[in-house]
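#lab-general

N.A. 3:47 PM
ok so I finally got the sequence cleaned up, no stray characters, all 79 residues accounted for. can someone with queue access submit it? mine expired

B.Y. 3:52 PM
send it over

N.A. 3:53 PM
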Amino acid sequence: MNMSKAFDQTLIAFEIKASDLAERSGVHESDISRFRNGKTNVGHKKIEQLLSAFTDTQLDYFWFVLKHDIPVNAPKEQP
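B.Y. 4:20 PM
back already:
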C-alpha cells in the first residue's frame, strides 16, 4: 500500500477531519486533501508534520495499515 492510501485510511478509521489535522499539524488543508487523494507528494517535512499530529494509537494504526495493506472498510467474513 502506498503512503497516501494508508494516510487516508487512518483519517477515515479515526474520523479525523482534514481541517482539524491542518490546525494541529500546520499543513494546509488543501495539501492534506491532495495527499489523501494521491494527487501529490507533499514532501518529507509535511509528512513528518502530519504524522506528528497523530496520537500514538493513530500512528500505530497508520504504520500497520501501510505495512499490511489492510482496507478500512473490509467486509467481515460471514459465518
